[in-house]
Design a protein that fits this description.
Oligomer: single chain
CATH class of the largest domain: Alpha Beta
Structural class: alpha+beta
Strand order of the largest sheet: 7-12-8-9-10-11
Number of domains: 3
Largest sheet: 6 strands, antiparallel
Order of helices and strands: EHHEHEEEHEHHEHEEEEHEEEEHEEHH
Helix content: 25-40%
Number of helices: 11
């Protein structure tokens, strides 16, 4: 089942840990065990590579020996960002190693700004982008009052960090709730909340502003992709941004790409939205593994569901459906097993 000349290729699978975890990591004990096994079936030898800031030199040396790198590291974890890792990934990519996901492509596709840039592709909603504090503090209050409820998202984050539902109340007050963990709503002056949000603009940060989707209680559909192919779905009743009495989140119910309820979504993703996004963002080779999270939009004239994109994940896509590792491995084996494709990946900084 090997692809091309991938039998002689080596790939590192990277995740965050500490020095001890790095010493003890094995494919058999990794949460990516199925990915290791799928790569082996395609003739690719895969190694575990645990990343921590104090092991960065070891990580760099290991990755430079590889033909490819697959990365599962969140943008923010325990208050730490992955800036040091991203610089190493850029370095090894420049040396000819296939990196998925490449940090420069993450900055195109795996940040919330993509919601604004792709808002006209058919999966968008009423979406605004604030690039400065002044623009946000000037423009957001009027939009909030007109809409009644908006959702703010910091440009780069995960786990609901920096994602807020904001509801307009009388007398300059607002009800705000972060999607992080079990965060409860707060009522405070809107001016005070705007001041709290100033931190999101530090270091060139941005805020994205979307209309709140009333069908949020019906759940979120995660569409798992390998390059331009749907490899599965996950549907979940989510807790973030819901009232306190909404109860705990439900389990994510995984299904394969052929799951009947989501075939209309699959057709749009493979035939329309994904290629249109790649053209718009100038991405020549899509990530080996990524996902798009959708909420239900309003029913169309025929009574069929519509879908609103709320996030694209590329930094650390896990868990994944049982069907995903095989397609992921096939895509990675093809990339590392073809010298021309490897060179193209390095030049265009694909992940």
């Amino acid at each position: 089942m090997a692809d091309g000349n991938s039998q002689s290729c080596k790939v590192a699978i990277v995740w965050r840990g500490d020095a001890q975890a790095r010493r003890e990591a094995t494919p058999a004990t990794s949460r990516q065990r199925a990915v290791f096994e799928a790569l082996a079936r395609h003739g690719v030898a895969a190694e575990a590579c645990v990343y921590a800031e104090d092991t960065i030199d070891e990580v760099r040396a290991q990755l430079l020996r590889m033909d490819g790198v697959l990365v599962w590291v969140d943008p923010i974890s325990g208050g730490q960002r992955r800036d040091m890792l991203d610089e190493v990934l850029r370095e090894v990519s420049a040396a000819g190693v296939v990196v998925s996901a490449h940090p420069d492509v993450i900055l195109k596709m795996g940040v919330k700004e993509v919601l604004y840039r792709t808002r006209d592709l058919g999966w968008g909603a009423d979406t605004q982008l604030y690039e400065t504090r002044d623009a946000f503090e000037t423009e957001f209050p009027a939009r909030l009052e007109a809409s009644g409820a908006r959702v703010l998202k910091q440009n780069r984050g995960n786990g609901g960090i920096g994602v807020w539902k904001v509801e307009f109340l009388d007398a300059g007050m607002a009800r705000v709730q972060e999607a992080r963990g079990e965060a409860e709503p707060r009522i405070l002056p809107l001016r005070a909340f705007l001041y709290e949000c100033r931190a999101y603009f530090d270091g060139g940060g941005k805020l994205i502003d979307q209309a709140f989707q009333p069908r949020l209680p019906e759940g979120m559909i995660r569409c798992y992709m390998s390059e331009d192919l749907v490899v599965g779905f996950g549907r979940q009743i989510i807790r973030g941004l819901m009232p306190a009495d909404a109860g705990p989140p439900g389990p994510r119910i995984m299904s394969g790409p052929g799951h009947p309820p989501f075939q209309a979504l699959r057709a749009r993703m493979e035939g329309d939205w994904t290629p249109a996004m790649a053209r718009l963002l100038e991405i020549e080779a899509l990530p080996v593994i990524w996902d798009a999270d959708f909420l239900y939009g309003p029913k169309d004239a025929a009574g069929e569901d519509t879908y609103v994109l709320c996030e694209i994940n590329v930094s650390s896509v896990f868990p994944i459906p049982d069907e995903a590792p095989e397609e992921l491995a096939r895509a990675m084996a093809r990339r590392v097993g073809s010298k021309p494709e490897r060179a193209a990946d390095s030049r265009t900084q694909t992940r």
